[in-house]
Amino acid sequence: MEKILIVEDEPDMAMGLKDNLEFEGYEVDIAMDGEEGLSRILTLKYDLVLLDVMLPKLSGFDVCKKARKNAVQTPIIFLSAKGEELDKVIGLESGADDYITKPFSLRELSARIKAVIRRSAAQLSDNGAEQVVIGRLKIDFNNYTAFDGSEPIKLSLKEHEILHHLWRNKNRTVSRDGLLDTVWGFDFQPTTRTIDNFILKLRHKIEENPDNPTLILTVHGVGYKLVMG
Ligand code: CA
Hints:
The chain has helices at 11-23, 34-43, 60-69, 88-93, 106-125, 157-168, 176-184, 192-206, and strands at 3-7, 27-31, 48-52, 76-80, 98-101, 131-134, 137-140, 145-148, 151-152, 173-175, 216-219, 223-226. By secondary structure, the protein is of the alpha/beta class. It has 2 domains: 3-124, Rossmann fold (3-Layer(aba) Sandwich), CATH 3.40.50; 131-226, Arc Repressor Mutant, subunit A, CATH 1.10.10.10. A hairpin with a 2-residue loop joins strand 6 (131-134) and strand 7. Helix 6 crosses helix 8. The mean pLDDT is 86. The structure holds calcium ion (CA).
């Protein structure tokens, strides 16, 4: 039986969700504040966490970040109140898998839960193929985590996406236009100068000597190339 943790401080909401999810065949635990939620996530094994954003003691975002820093890969779906949609990027940047805005229908929630659990199971059976070693960093592109030894390294969402794109095209030249299309898409279009700045920051986190890079090389007039043996 799949086990779900609900971290939610509104008792009616928490109990309502618990009843419905149990009816659907899940085993369900409830934590009423952020600290209790985090301690359960770190010590018990869940298949999914439903995490409210506004919580006493520790916010949902902080719970998620701390869980990911401790290398917990349990999928997390944020439950946020209406009007908190601007926080969406922060939510996903903190390492969550999905996001649903209250009020939501149980049908929608149920569909999201199934999709996230299925995706997570597929990733695990994939032998963690998205966990790669680049230079001295161990990076998990699915969970947006990076470690230098046992030390967590903070990469921004864009830094992760740029590195992921370079890695998918490793040992090939990636043009700046290609990076713009893949990482920024139709959103705000940064200048090529912005990309160069992101690459500089990445080099400082990855290269032994950022002034003399051996991993992310500049291909003059075109773009960049991630060199891997
Ligand atoms: Ca709340």
